[in-house]
TrEMBL record:
Enzyme category, top tier: lyase
Record protein name field: 4-hydroxy-4-methyl-2-oxoglutarate aldolase
UniProt-listed GO biological process terms: regulation of RNA metabolic process
EC number(s) stated in the UniProt entry for this protein: 4.1.1.112, 4.1.3.17
Cofactors (names): Mg(2+); a divalent metal cation
Assigned keywords, A-Z: Lyase, Magnesium, Metal-binding
Molecular-function GO terms, alphabetical: 4-hydroxy-4-methyl-2-oxoglutarate aldolase activity; metal ion binding; oxaloacetate decarboxylase activity; ribonuclease inhibitor activity
Oligomer status and interactors: Homotrimer.
Its biological purpose: Catalyzes the aldol cleavage of 4-hydroxy-4-methyl-2-oxoglutarate (HMG) into 2 molecules of pyruvate. Also contains a secondary oxaloacetate (OAA) decarboxylase activity due to the common pyruvate enolate transition state formed following C-C bond cleavage in the retro-aldol and decarboxylation reactions.
Binding positions for substrate per the UniProt entry: 81-84, 103
Family: Belongs to the class II aldolase/RraA-like family.
Gene3D superfamilies per the UniProt record, alphabetical: Ribonuclease E inhibitor RraA/RraA-like
Amino acid sequence: MTDSSIQFIATADIADIHNKDVRSCDIQFRNFGGRIEFCGEIHTISCFQDNGLVKKTLNSPGEGKVLVVDGHASMHTALMGDMIAEAGVNNGWAGVIINGPIRDSAEVAKMEFGCKALGTNPRKSNKDGIGEENIVLRLGGIDFIPGQYVYADSDGVVVSENPVEPE
């Protein structure tokens, strides 16, 4: 579930109203989750063809946060499947944004969970837990900074230093 203190606002509206105060991601992510509109505080992971940290993180309390994963755009192995996504749902994560592929997309689409990724690949990844957590990620021309806020919908992804207030 999304943190109830953060109200979702459409990314186009955010860009119109708060243009100078937000950053818009250039990557054309695809929607895979059952929740198309989601937002929350950013938590980050950088990993390469290894989803051990993703699994560990989504199995911990999410408190409405959004996990942003830099898989370095490798399409070789999926960084999340239905079981890990289900753990995210059960632990209160609002969703994930993955610079890489997922798998089990038909099942993920049935979940009340936000999921944006580059695409799909049925091949599972390594599970060694190799990567970095809570670091600044540079994706699509913008920085995703832990503790800042991300808003995602069918129009794209925007990041704000603070929760966006409706006008």
